[in-house]
């Protein structure tokens, strides 16, 4: 049996669908799973070892071919048809569309298969394998589902039994942790500027954590090519930068106790770990659709009326007020909350992820009591501090 | 009757002129070929066939044979130039197919019928000036960025009764793909592909 999974979204969205591929592999152990996506996100293959064969369409090349006057006007169309021809020769028994775009629905319409799951367009008609796929966001109507739950329900997979496991072998990372020391990882960069937190706030957070947990090991993680972007913040904070492959990120997160992240692809890797995750949702990062999926996680978000803003276009405000809405203290208190300790009221929106049948969030109300600045308690915990 | 003359550069490279017009650099044709190749580097990757418009002294074609494994077809009418290439680049002559301009459309069609549709058209300016109009027509067919070019591209794919929508704007590819996608004369397969392109380049 051959199954083709189609996902023409970005890296995070591809990683988020890993449980679906794990479920397919479990249901059809003998099946060959192929995956088609944009070439730019080829890196997903490092950790999604449940895929037997990858196929790619280069997004950058398509843009270039279409816009380059020296290229044939038909060249990008030929690239699509070339890929479609190659895929149709594979003879898939099942095509499963895991991206909710018109582009992927049109693509699935071109692939020959007896069974199609998800959405596809044939003769200008949108077809779906389940009525739930008609429940997408349009105009004022907003779907209630987390994207993963939406697909799980649509494909008939029990959300309770999902398996997040990324299949990469654990890379040998050595965080050099002495007994009892905590490893904090920070995903500081994001590919979308609208989702970024300010450098000043990150620096505040680092010094705050150092005050509360003097023996903390802190590392910023990023892709190897992004390392230079963090040089400055690293020299100001003395927090080391790790330029890591996706497989290495997986291993590091598994070894960490805390992972503070923006809305980026790496947060989905944290779903396959026991790390306590604090996700900061700013700008267009809509946690209700693609937030962290594991329990033991807190999502902090801006209370600004314009949050979440649309993906397209830049921020309409002079300064991004959603950045101001989340303070370093809020993150520190979220860490407290995950440790079962109580703190003061947060200035931003905060929800705790609950995994019951589906993904759910419940508000973290203003909890009062001793704060993290309790010097006596810190001294009690760390005699040497 | 064209008048092809063979000359030699100071470093001894054999170059040609046509009716007194130089068909390549007479100082450093190899450097010129390298610059030409650098300019077209982005057009030669992952192609089934590369069509070269104009042979001239042939250094650019020789350089191209070193860079790619794709099939190379050169459109050239003048037999003396072809003979010059074969004598000068003995080890490369078998890597290139020469086709006269009058047979260009049939040649392109033959390649397309074999499914080799991923192609590039590279022009070598000094070598096409003597027959600019005819070379421009071939380029139009291969680039497909004009009404006639679009129709020719469909004809190459065996779709003959295609009418290009009016007012198609080639300067704005997204709009151009969108108007092609709405054309009911096309099969749903082609409509789907153009819809995908218009989604892609909004």
Q: What's the helix and strand layout?
A:
The complex is a heterodimer of chains A (385) and B (202).
Chain A: E1 2-6, H1 11-16, H2 18-27, E2 32-38, E3 53-57, H3 59-67, H4 75-90, E4 94-97, H5 102-110, E5 115-117, E6 119-122, E7 125-128, H6 147-154, E8 183-187, H7 199-212, E9 217-222, H8 231-237, E10 240-243, H9 246-255, E11 258-261, H10 266-269, E12 276-281, H11 287-290, E13 297-301, H12 321-325, H13 328-338, E14 349-355, E15 359-363, H14 375-381
Parallel strand pairs in A: 1-2, 1-4, 2-3, 4-5, 8-9, 8-11, 9-10, 11-12, 12-13
Antiparallel strand pairs in A: 6-7, 13-14, 14-15
Helix pairs in contact in A: 3-4, 7-13
Chain B: E1 4-8, E2 14-18, E3 21-22, H1 29-40, E4 49-53, H2 59-67, E5 71-75, H3 79-88, E6 96-99, H4 104-113, E7 119-123, H5 132-143, H6 147-156, H7 173-181, H8 188-200
Parallel strand pairs in B: 4-5, 4-7, 5-6
Antiparallel strand pairs in B: 1-2, 2-3
Helix pairs in contact in B: 1-2, 5-6, 7-8
